[in-house]
Amino acid sequence: MEAKFFQENRLRYFNRIQDNSLTLLYSGRVLQRTHDQEFPFETDKNFYYLTGINQANVIFALVKNGSERREVLFIEENDPILSKWVGRKLTINEAQRISGIEEIRYIDDFDNFLFSLFNSTRLNTYRVTNLYLNLERRNLLGYTNWALEFIAGFRRNYPEIQVLNMREIVIGLRMIKQEEEIGRIKKAISVTQKGIEDILKVVRPGMYEYQIDAYFDFAIKYRDNCSLAFDTIVASGKNGTVLHYITKSDIIKEDELVLLDLGARSGFYVSDISRTIPANGRFTLRQREVYSEVLTVNKKCIEYLKPGLTWAEFNRYSRELLLSGLKRLGLIEKDEDLEKYYYHSIGHFIGLDTHDPGLAEAEFKPGMVLTVEPGIYIEEEKIGVRIEDNVLITKDGTENLSKNIIKEIDDIERFMIAAK
């Protein structure tokens, strides 16, 4: 992304916050994985959305005073010894070029900067009475983050300042994708399509699930230098009835279906695609019946989508379709038995995250990108089918961004048989 993209994001955010305010955002920490290794760093997505910076231990400060806006980025100064071991960090000029933020300071200056804003005896042109923090909370034992830790000390020192949560403001902005973002998602989908087609060419009974996983991993990295959007799901037979099956250790057997749930990431933006294929290249009669019902729901749900709908309405519509399908398949008689064979929602937002955050009650609007992923899971028959597309809401309805990824029964069989 160009710096202009992040500058425009900051302006939209600036126009939505209260006057006389300071916003603080933290990029994130590097976490220890083992005694001698760290987890790969993943920048906070709200931080990235406003700055474009992908580096640990960086703070972004935005001060609003009427129409005046001050932006400051605090980065770590390069250590010449560490640079030789793990590589150098961003320079001031590089951080300016990426973010479009002119005032770049070293992080050792942050405490003085903060003190100068809130100490009324200092010469200060800003009157800050509100502090915005990225207050994400999770119902996990021991969960913490920089904002939650920062606020404890800040309230002790500055009890008169009102603390506000900027998280929903940024999430509201992230829900509506700009053209640059849609382009990145399309790129991720295109790369995913190549990986799926590679799988269709090689999959056969007798292979291990992890071997199929390796083909996709290789395809997206070798061709396009993309990374995985999430841990790839390759689930054969009964494993396909487990929603987030990631073990990938079983042998794929004759006459089994293989459920693929996979995606690539291009410039931080992701795809999330599910396809279900026959291991030997041909669906059995029963597999065709189940697959056809799921495919019908997938298509009808995409047609149903439009601006003004909510997730609650969309889920209700998809459940009604799946109920009818399950009854035609002879699997249920009563509506309350639906969750025996379908136990998730119809989709979620995607963008910087695979499950991009969104406001639960918000109506769908042009620019939103979401998944449509109905499924039927019959454990006793060892059949799991999920078909997932990535769909853009437009002013007139929808655009299926992944429409070119093969999903019709006859097309799948033709493609796989021709590749053998």
Summarize the structure.
With 420 residues, the chain is of the alpha+beta class. The protein is 36% helix and 19% strand. The protein is built from twelve helices and 19 strands.
Commentary on this structure:
The protein is an alpha+beta fold and 420 residues long. It folds into two domains: 3-173, Creatinase/prolidase N-terminal domain (Creatine Amidinohydrolase, Chain A, domain 1, 3-Layer(aba) Sandwich), CATH 3.40.350; 176-419, Creatinase/methionine aminopeptidase superfamily (Creatine Amidinohydrolase), CATH 3.90.230. It is 36% helix and 19% strand. The strands form six sheets. Strands 6-5-4-1-7-8 form a six-stranded mixed beta sheet, with helices on both faces. A three-stranded antiparallel beta sheet has the order 9-12-13. A three-stranded antiparallel beta sheet has the order 10-11-14, with helices on one face. The two termini are 41 Å apart.
Give start-end ranges of low-pLDDT stretches: none
Going by CATH, what is the homologous superfamily of the largest domain?
Creatinase/methionine aminopeptidase superfamily
Number of structurally distinct domains? 2
**Helix count from the secondary structure assignment:** 12
Work out the strand percent: 15-25%
Distance between the termini: 41 Å
What's the CATH class label of the largest domain? Alpha Beta
Mean pLDDT: 95
Largest sheet: 6 strands, mixed
What key phrases describe this protein's structure?
6-stranded mixed beta sheet, 36% helix, elongated, 420 residues, Creatine Amidinohydrolase, Chain A, domain 1, 12 helices, Creatine Amidinohydrolase, 2 domains
